[in-house]
Amino acid sequence: MPKSNLLSIPLNFFASLLLISLIAAPIYFAQNFAKVAGVKSEASYIISSQVDKFPQMKLEQVGGSFKISFTKQAPSQAYLSVLIITNPTKETKTYTIIQPPTATRAFFGEDVNNLQNEVKVPPQTSVPISLISTSNQNDQNIQFTIQTQ
């Protein structure tokens, strides 16, 4: 009987080692895979839509191109914080709104007296994108893209 007790000590030790390695190995590999996957899938910006808060407004997005359709309620009207752009990276990014010249404009911020089409956004920070229309037509469309530098 003493012989079996001597054999059980190394067997218990190796069984414990095997159990610890079976638990630790997936955690170790999951951390490494997450680092690799994060580098490959990092976006230069994240867009959050607030369009559902505005009556008769519709957003279409194809890749980096945005099209917003809406019906105006007054002759000259601004829609503030229609979209929100977030910089998810670890460095400051410069974003530019590229759009054809029309009576409806998209701009960064909420100041209708200072229509900025370019903005520097610090890491992990958000900036609103607003619309302003001076056209007399009720049904409006605006199409623009956001360029990252």
**Quaternary structure classification:** single chain
Q: Give the low-confidence spans.
A: none
Give the neighbour order of strands across the main sheet.
Answer: 2-3-9-5-7
* Major sheet summary line: 5 strands, antiparallel
What's the overall average pLDDT, rounded? Answer: 85
Rg, nearest Å: 27 Å
Helix content: 25-40%
Q: What's the gist of this structure?
A:
The chain is 26% helix and 40% strand. By secondary structure, it is an alpha+beta fold. Keywords: Membrane, Transmembrane, Transmembrane helix.
Furnish the topology, listing elements before pairings.
Blueprint: H1 2-40, E1 46-49, E2 57-62, E3 65-71, E4 77-86, E5 93-98, E6 104-108, E7 118-121, E8 126-133, E9 139-148
Description:
Keywords: Membrane, Transmembrane, Transmembrane helix. The chain crosses the membrane at residues 6-30. The protein has two domains: 1-41; 46-148, no CATH class. 26% of the residues lie in helices and 40% in strands. The protein contains one helix and nine strands; from the N terminus they run αβββββββββ. It has one helix at 2-40; strands at 46-49, 57-62, 65-71, 77-86, 93-98, 104-108, 118-121, 126-133, 139-148. Strands 2-3-9-5-7 form a five-stranded antiparallel sheet, with no helix packed on it. Strand 2 and strand 3 (65-71) form a beta hairpin.
List keywords for this structure.
149 residues; 2 domains; five-stranded antiparallel β-sheet; four-stranded antiparallel β-sheet; 9 strands; 26% helix
